[in-house]
Amino acid sequence: MFYKLLVINPGSTSTKVAVYVDKEQQWVESITHSPEDLKPFKDVYDQLDMRTEMVTECYEKHGDKVADFDAVVARGGLMPPVHAGAYEVNQYMIDMMHYHPQNVHASNMAAAIAEHVAELAGCKAYTYDAVAVDEMEGIYRITGLKEIERYGRGHNLNMRAAVINFCEQNNLDMKDKNIMSVHMGGGISVGLLSKGKIIDMISDDEGPFSPERSGGLPAFRVIDLCYDEYPNKKAMMDHLKNEGGFMAHLGTTDLRDVEKMIDNGDEHAELIFDAMALNIAKNIAKLTVDVNGKIDYILLTGGMAFSDRLTKAIEERVGWIAPVKLMPGEKEMDSLAFGILRVLNGKEEADRLEGVCEK
Ligand SMILES: Nc1ncnc2c1ncn2[C@@H]1O[C@H](COP(=O)(O)OP(=O)(O)O)[C@@H](O)[C@H]1O
Ligand SMILES: CCCC(=O)OP(=O)(O)O
């Protein structure tokens, strides 16, 4: 029995679409949305109809018939907190990401697009390892303010996929190991997997600065900035999420550009690069105390893990903790497809989010 899956992964500037027959990717396409394309839309979610149409055109262009899909898989966005793994898409999930998302992100539209196609196909739509996966244990949630809790929210899909793939390749049982998985892309998340769960993590609002994000900042200075320069919440959020890190200091989000600057003798670029590597290492070290330092492996993944200069700089600082292993790039489309294949093959179960969404 073969399963044919359509996989949909919307990002801020692209929508990735792929078709799989079992584990074989038939094709993948990244539809680019230029700033001009996105300009007419006031809010990110307003792009839903446009992106849905483009996904439909995409699989039709590749000659795929909707009736042949056995499942449609969506990147899970910022729905209410969920556990790792698969969820069936339902109206409650779609509405929560539409009307009450934990934060704004293009992935919030994925479930609605998937459900639209799944209805046409007469099959189910699923999410897998959503951004909203939160398996953080109690003690790690506590902050010094009663009304502010820490939470698990980040690049869970790629962090978990790196661990699953690394353990498969090395014949390890992830349930026996403590593994630090660090996604280093446009944003950075540092996650600690223990007994197969992400028990603690540091995401883009608390952790290292990254190519485009500010990372954690001194709270009192953030208060000044909100009152004095960015009284508008959306503008402040955009500033932290899209205009931080390399972008703020060096005017690019591309690590390869930064490396060229360094090669050309730019000492400021070198300082900022070193500071990012230091910040990544420091946040890795921070989580090690959760398991009394007993870390088995540190996995570096995401686009920036292709950089020898960066991975070496991090390894120099954290190599004493545990062996550093590289799983460069992100295989989000594979991870989404393979996760749902495990469900269809009876190896994992899909859960459902239940609730009533007030619009
Ligand atoms: N071969 C490479 N060498 C160095 N940096 C790279 C390489 N490929 C991608 N990157 C960097 O990785 C970052 C993007 O990572 P990626 O995981 O693709 O991002 P996203 O989180 O947006 O999916 C960019 O800063 C990019 O310059
Ligand atoms: C940290 C939440 C997920 C996220 O921001 O993803 P991208 O870095 O891919 O935008």
From TrEMBL:
Question: Which InterPro entries does this entry report, sorted A to Z?
Answer: Aliphatic_acid_kin_short-chain (IPR000890), Aliphatic_acid_kinase_CS (IPR023865), ATPase_NBD (IPR043129), Butyrate_kin (IPR011245)
Localization, per the record, is: Cytoplasm
EC assignment: 2.7.2.7
Q: Which GO terms describe its molecular function?
A: acetate kinase activity; ATP binding; butyrate kinase activity
Q: What is its main location?
A: cytoplasm
Task: Provide the alphabetized UniProt keywords.
Answer: ATP-binding, Cytoplasm, Kinase, Nucleotide-binding, Transferase
For whether the record's keyword set contains Coiled coil, the answer is no
Main EC class of this protein?
transferase
Q: Which GO terms describe its cellular component?
A: cytoplasm
Q: Which GO biological-process labels does this protein carry?
A: acetate metabolic process
* Name of the protein: Probable butyrate kinase
Which species is the source of this protein?
Answer: Aminicella lysinilytica
